[in-house]
Amino acid sequence: MFAPLLGVVAAAMGDGAASFPLRDVLRYATTSAFLALSVGVITGITGTLAAWLVVMHRFPGRALFTWALALPLAMPAFAVAYGYADLLDVAGPLRSALRDMTGHDLPFEIRSLGGAIFVLSAAFYPYVFLAMRAAFLNLPGATLDAARMLGSRGAAAFFRVVLPLTRPALGAGMALAVMETLADYGAVHFLSVQTLTTGVVRAWSVFGSTASAARFALPLLAAAAVLLWIERAGRRGRTHETGKTRWRGPEATPLGRTAGVAAAAFCLLLLCSGLLVPAGWLLANLPGQIPDWGRLATAARNSFGLAAAGALFTVMLATLLALGAERRPLAVRLASLGYATPGAVMAIGLLAPAGVIWSLFPDSGAALALTLLILAYAARLMAAALEPIDAGLARVSPSLSQAARTLGRSEIGSALAVRLPLAAGSLLTAGLIVMVDILKELPATLILRPFNFDTLAVIASNYALDERLGQAGLPSLMILVLSLPAVIWLTGRISSPVGRETGP
Amino acid sequence: MTPLLELRQVSRRFGARTVVDAASLKLFPGRIACLLGPSGCGKSTLLRMIAGLETPDLGEIHIGDRVVASPAGALPPEDRGIGLVFQDNALFPHLDVQANVGFGLTGLSRADRTQKVLRLLDQFQIRRLASEWPHSLSGGEQQRVAIARALARTPSLLLLDEPFSGLDGVLRESVRGALLEDLRRLGTTVLVVTHDPEEAMAIADDLILMSEGRILQAGPPEDVYRRPVSLIAARLLGEMVVVPGEVASGRIETPLGSLTAPGLADGSAQLGLRPEALVPAEAGVVATVLDRRFQGDGYRLTLDLGEVQVPLTWRADPPEPGATVCVSFRPADAVLFNPEGERAVSGRLPSG
To answer: Are A245 and B94 an interchain contact pair (Cβ–Cβ within 8 Å)?
Structure first.
């Protein structure tokens, strides 16, 4: 589990890193930091506002937006980038039509840092939305009433009471969005924005230098550790639980006509920018393409197979870790570091230990590569799987396992017979989260995959880099279709309020 | 005396269900009133309407000479000058005790606010908790903080929603005693909502009974206990023994004997008695003992009166089941109900 992390550090210390001067690393790091900060702030505001609207107010379309606003999670960020890049292309139909009508061009270039900020914000706001929606739903109803009785309402109540109480969730949601931004390769690379992650992949693929790739990876790893620390610190000691209280969620108040329409328009705008516009445009471009069905089918099988195997392996490891967590909390903390670590960094870290194995077993080729890939997925997504599994196990009353122990089961036996079956729903949740993430994963797959082994994401990326955006649309949409059911199922679960948790 | 708060025919519906049905009541300054009713009778909704957290569908709410809610519109809670203490206290978990109590004190200078908060903390003997966090406080302490917080804005009326339900046993009684002493000393007008009849009778100056969305009766606790307007009202406050009877020309005949029933129409009626009104007697109705149970300060016998069974408390040397005893009651303690369970004859006019 920790091998990739150690591998990165070791490789960075190694020789042969001359191909990139430190100045470049700094420049890439500045871009990454600015990008991450901007996406963090934008997703923080839009995600919170959208969550506040659907939880606290009634307006047209609220029931739909409550779950639909999370759907962009099923859309890979690179697919969002392809959609917008094609739609807003200088020679594209939209700009041509606008030029003809108004005589002016849009003063906006999607292949820029600004474009990347827009694309990634549109793709990643659901992380904040989901975290804040759950937080708002879990606010005890009396909290807002109490603030009102004491003279605070509206904005004052929001900033004095609601925001301080939901700040841990906001921090966690924004940290996720920022981590994903730092880890993103497909979208920023395509939009010609040079970040640390593109640096890692480029150093490795163009210059073949593991050491210089690791130089780029080190600041990312540091940022990951800081983000993780922020996310944990937000929660520490501030679990606002009052134990016996009856939770009665806040009551939604209707908005006036104008405000209601504005709220619906805002939610629709978010949904459009994250999903409907890019996916719609890719879909509209499908007719006229001659897809290479054979290649796509193989890639879909590969994608799905990797996702399923990765999910299974990750959930198994995470379950073991969660069960062992009571004994060794530090191990769990370290394992979570992987989640903040970009896939590219993970892959680079794994290459070093892999080199050793390769030299020992020269024939292991593809099988070893796939194993490494699954290991990289597991290391990267461990925290995402641990979170729901931990929560699921925590909900199983300790007296149940104690009862199993007094009835003659061993510690492991009682875990198998009592705790795991009761937490089955959480295991499924964890598995689906991991699956969706693997389906969308690009950089680690690019680096570690065996020769000629394609996934949908890899094919899409290859087409896109060859400027064949129409062809890239189909594999992107196939990823969307594969992940959509899982995301829909997940949004229903993640945000159900504590007391009303469905399933076991 | 002019009422501080008056509700006139206030109703609230949720969908097809009428939760509060034409409720009227008056609260007077400096008094502690208690709204008693079973769970789900609409008392919490009534409380929230008074606070301004719900708006009545019909009827008016007056505070002093001001209409604060009517079908025409409602004053928002922050402008009503009413304090509400929530059942779970609803302390803000991200603020310490001092900041919680000072939360509603806006528009004061920092020094004034601190001074006022500290004075309140002194009044409720919780100054030593000033920098504690809510989760580290005991239930009783949390409640004192919540009450101090509600009183910080010097409301004209303090509403308490099931204030003692989170506390148990001995603690409950001592917390209740100390709290009421403080509130009386401060001269606060208080409305307490509870479902516990003993608690209601112990703390109320004025008792208001509520059931199924309707206010049944209001008045001093003794009156309400002794002269319930109906069997339902009677049973909200405790056990009521009911013995059927026949009225003929101004007298009612029952298995426990006969008594005058002036103005009651001929036909069937019911005689209601609190269990303690039934006493062993030298001369009275003879009944067989069916059952005997020890209850600490005495024995509870069940007597067979033919059509009905009635309880009788016996202090010492109780008779065995199967033996016969003599039982009687004071006619002044009897309440007569018509067959529908409404009070048919009253010693006094219904109060409230």
So the answer is: no
CB B277 within 8 A of CB B334: yes
Distance in angstroms (rounded) separating the CA atoms of residues B173 and B175: 6
Using CA atoms, how far apart are residues A51 and A138, in angstroms rounded to an integer? 12
CA A134 to each of CA A479, A488, A499: distance values in angstroms, whole numbers, following the listed order? 27, 15, 12
Are the Cβ atoms of A146 and B76 closer than 8 angstroms? no
> Comparing C-alpha atoms, which of A213, A210, A189, A53 is closest to residue A132?
A53
**Residues of B whose CB is below 8 A from A234:** none
For chain B, how many residues are written?
Answer: 352
Q: Which CA distances in Å does A317 have to A15, A86, A334, A379, A462?
A: 34, 41, 14, 10, 32
Cα separation, B45 vs B54, whole angstroms: 7
Q: How far off is chain A from B91, nearest CA to CA, in Å?
A: 8
Sheet-wide strand order for B324-329: B309-314, B299-304, B278-294, B324-329
Q: State ipTM.
A: 0.70
Cα dist. A99→A90, A220, A281, B70 in Å? Answer: 10, 42, 20, 59
C-alpha A498 chain-centroid distance: 23
CA A51, CA A70: separation in Å to the nearest integer? 10
Q: Is B39 helix (H, G, I), strand (E, B) or coil?
A: coil
Beta carbons of B224 and B217 less than 8 angstroms apart = yes
Please tell me the distance in Å from B161's CA to the nearest CA on chain A.
12
Rounded to an integer, what distance in angstroms lies between the CA atom of residue A483 and that of residue A432? 9
B88 near A CB under 8 A: yes
What global pTM score does this model have? 0.77
| Phi-psi sector, A323: left (phi>0), alpha (psi -120 to 50), beta | alpha
DSSP β-ladder status, B206-211 and B267-273: unpaired
* Interchain contact, A242 vs B135, CB within 8 Å: yes
CA angle (B168 as vertex; B128, B208 as ends), nearest 5: 100
Min Cα separation A148/chain B (Å):
6
Instruction: Read off the pLDDT of residues A438-462 as tens digits, 9 standing for 90 and up.
Output: 998 888 888 888 877 888 988 888 8
- Helices assigned H by DSSP within A361-423: 365-395, 398-406, 411-414, 420-422
pLDDT tens sequence across A190-223: 888 888 888 888 887 777 777 777 778 888 888 8
CB contact at 8 A, A110 and B45: no
Asked if residues A263 and A55 have their Cβ atoms less than 8 Å apart, the reply is no
Q: Which residue of B has its CA nearest to A161?
A: B92
